[in-house]
Amino acid sequence: MKKQFSTSWIRSTQPRKQRKYGYNAPLHRKQKKFHAHLSAELRKKYGLRSVSVRTGDTIRIARGQFKKKDGKVDRIILKRERMFVKGIELIKKDGVKIPYPLHPSNVLILELDLGDKKRKKKIEAHLKKGSAPAEAVPAAPVMATQKNPLSRPDEKLKTVHPQHH
Q: In terms of C-beta density within 10 A (0-12 exposed, 13-18 middle, 19 or more buried), how is residue 114 classed?
C-alpha cells in the first residue's frame, strides 16, 4: 500500500503528526530539510547559517558517540534522511565494520564542495545580494500595541514593551 502525503496539510502542534508529515514527504520536500549548520568561518564568509548537505562536504560530528570527529560525506540517503561519512564506522561483535548513519542536524559543515555549478551559483547570488550575516543585523526594539483579551471592549489598547516579555 502506498503511503499518502497530504499537500493540504498546513501545521499541527502534535509531534506525531509532524513526524508523520516528514516521514511520508516526497523526496523533493525532504531535500529542503536536509540542511546542516555552517562553521563560524563559513558563516562569516558566505553570510549563511545553514546549507544543504552534499557528498564531498567536509563535516564535524557534533552529537553522538563519534562527537568531534571530522570526515567527508560519502553517501546520502534522502529517503531515510541519513548520511554516511568516510571513516565513521561501527564495529559489530563479529568484527564486521558497517557505515554509521548520521542525521544532518547532528553535524557541522567545515568545508563546502563547490564543484557543483548550481550550488556555487546559489551561494554567489546570496553574496552579491549584499545581505549581511544574520548575527550582524541588530534587532530594533519595536513598540507593539495589543488588546488585552481579558479587558472589557470599551477599554483602551494596552502598550506592550518588548523588554518586559
A: middle
**d(C-alpha 128, C-alpha 130), whole Å:** 5
pTM listed for this prediction: 0.71
Q: Does a structural domain hold residue 7?
A: yes
Q: Are residues 91 and 22 in the same domain?
A: no
* Per-residue pLDDT tens digits for 29-63: 899 889 999 999 999 999 999 999 999 999 999 99
In a domain, 144, yes or no: no
Let me know if residue 87 belongs to a domain: yes
Domain containing residue 101: 34-137
Q: How far apart are the first and last CA of the chain?
A: 49
Angle at the Cα of 71 from the Cα atoms of 133 and 123, rounded to 5 degrees: 30
With CA atoms as reference, report the closest residue to 62 among 89, 87, 37: 37
Same-domain pairing of 75 and 27: no
Cα 126 from Cα 26, distance rounded (Å): 27
CB 70 within 8 A of CB 145: no
- Same domain for 127 and 47, yes or no, is yes
